[in-house]
Design goal:
The protein is 24% helix and 36% strand. The chain is globular, with a radius of gyration of 19 Å. The mean pLDDT is 92. A nine-stranded antiparallel beta sheet has the order 6-2-1-8-9-17-18-7-14. A nine-stranded antiparallel beta sheet has the order 3-5-4-15-16-10-11-13-12. By secondary structure, the protein is α+β, with helices and mostly antiparallel strands.
Amino acid sequence: MSEDRHSLCRVLYRLPGAGDCCVLSSSSAPDVLSSPDDLSERSGFLIAPFTPSPDCPVVMVRPDSIEHHTLEKQPPTEKSPLASVPPVPGDYRRSFEAFHSAVSGGRFDKLVLAASLRRPVRLDDSGADALFLEACRAYPDFMVTLFSTPLTGTWLSVSPELLLEGEGNRWRTMALAGTMPLGEQEWSGKNRREQALVEHFVQETLERFATHIDRRGPESRRAGHLQHLCTVFDFRMERNRLGALLSALHPTPAVSGLERSAALDFIRTTENLERRYYSGFCGPTDPVGGTHLYVTLRSAAIDAERGEATLWAGGGIMPDSRLEEEWTEVVQKMHTVNLLFDHV
């Protein structure tokens, strides 16, 4: 990549299935937005956390320069299977018990529990770019993003989940929930119920903002070594309603829970970590062109100076969830990004 790596803000992204990537650089600090509602007619690269706070604001990178780079056509990198699952950490066990008790007791229909693990990394100035390119090779059908700003730090996201994209008055979103290993054929009742809750939430939310809503699914969708249930929604909406719809959609029950407001309060007070930009969303937005916003899943917060990365993932907790199964699912999701560091 020819862009100046010492720019104050730098973003690399590759849209799913695209043959090129985009490199944005800015010598200025990003704009801080009070919420996605404040998006208005701004253009740039939007980065939003799970829930905004003074330490994790919604920011917009407004680039000084934009470059497009053609990616070499190579077969996807061979992805090694997960060798073993580490023991369930005590913090995750305690959080699971609290979350499971809340859904089993009827307080919530669903809750999403996040987890993080740290691993050592060695990345020089070009190492982050190499990591991004490796992710593009390994996951050609994912949205791959690497962003670095003084307000957010450096994050890599490899996401199968579209939050919102479109231009003019034609838009698309999805409900993505339920997880099982690639190759298995039968979706469990737990996975189907989880997907149905997310699908219903998206449908009801769109009805407040959109017209001509067309729903397709649910159907299995491959996501690396895993698969999810996915329902796609195409609809029409005036672009001036984009910010309001984003605030109404995010965080969807796929990353939070139901009832959403109470679930967010429960997560903030019970989950034993700060999600920061994990399970937020990011992507380019342009009032006169295309907007492509994806949920920041399968992500890693990278601290090159300390030589470590924090891997993030989560899973939906339902009354029939089991501790060991949920922990295995979380580790499998982390493996999507974890194995990339072993190739750079």
